[in-house]
Amino acid sequence: MIDVRVSLCADEAVDIRRFQLEPINSTTLPAFTAGAHIDVHLPNGLVRQYSLCNADSENHRYVIGVLKDPASRGGSNAMHELIRPGDVIRISEPRNLFPLAEQGKRHLLFAGGIGITPLLSMAEHLHRHDQPFELHYCARASERMAFRQQLQEADFASRVHLHFDDGDAQQKLDAAQLLARPDADTHLYVCGPGGFMEHVLSTARQQGWPESQLHREYFAAAPVDHDAEGSFEVVLQSSGVIYQIPAERSIVQVLEAAGVDVPVSCEQGICGTCLTRVLSGEPDHRDMFMTDEEHAANDQMTLCCSRSRSARLVLDL
Predict the structure, then answer these.
(1) Residue 300 gets which letter from DSSP?
(2) CATH T-level assignment (fold) for domain 106-218
(3) Contact at 8 Å (CB) between 282 and 309?
(4) What is the distance, to the nearest Å, from the Cα of residue 166 to the centroid of all Cα atoms in its chain?
(5) Which residues form the FAD-binding FR-type domain (predicted)?
(6) What confidence category does residue 80 fall into, taking pLDDT thresholds of 50, 70 and 90?
């Protein structure tokens, strides 16, 4: 864990605020790669993940952008209402679950709303390394588009295309046209609201893009209906102890209550922190982190949200 000082809080757009974090005990912070995020430990005890949106060549600061979500579970509200310049907060070292594909020779970046944050860092990296890319950024209105001025003044501004829901028809995103000619050297990256991401990804699939060239990062999990949940057993391979998982509790909740240490962060199945190997049984995957192929393999699962189709799961814990 790292203690950092909040050196800047500034409104970027309606309900979106930029936070700049700087080191306290040194002049540098751990290096990161474009697409990485940090865990932020909030004053109210919550832990939330935020993408780093500054250039990955910088080691004197981290910059994050936070949307004040009306459906907040307490994280974004705390960032907006409790964090002020001069505050010292605790963060994790950066982790990257949404990296640029090393084999890609051309990159298409699609951002919706606050989903611009990891893609902004990617654009900075790609420009600095002279790699071809386009950034398409969609927002409901110009006043809701974070980092707009920064993008318009960037050295790579000619590669940035801004799309507004309330704008003229000709400037709106035409995903079918942009994705009409897939090739093996081009990779697609998308981040933003679930509906926006599904539109881009489904359009790409319809145009023949292979899954290996589609990269995504979700900020929130889709709602799940828990009315028909049942109970099941979990067995830990190391101890043989059996735990009953009732309908109203997750695997993580039961194991943590029993003193079993399980790394967990988002608690929604989007970050992969609690990914655990499954030795026996059939998981009922509820995450948005793994691919369809990884789900089909049934050899790992996210313990924070996924459940079981079989009466018992044996976990590599």
Answers:
(1) E
(2) Rossmann fold (3.40.50)
(3) yes
(4) 26
(5) 1-101
(6) very high
pLDDT tens for residues 126-170? 999 999 999 999 999 999 999 999 999 999 999 999 999 888 888
pLDDT band at 228 (very low <50, low <70, confident <90, very high): low
For CATH 3.40.50.80, the residue range(s) in the chain are: 106-218
Task: Among 3.20.20.70, 3.40.1260.10, 1.10.3720.10, 2.40.30.10, name the CATH number for the domain at 2-91.
Answer: 2.40.30.10
Q: Are strands 106-112 and 283-284 parallel, antiparallel or unpaired?
A: unpaired
**CATH number listed for the domain at residues 232-315:** 3.10.20.30
Q: What sections of the chain are H helices per DSSP? A: 75-82, 116-128, 148-153, 175-178, 194-206, 251-257, 292-297
pTM of the complete model:
0.80
- The secondary structure element, H or E, covering residue 136 is strand 133-139
Q: What is the pLDDT of residue 271?
A: 79
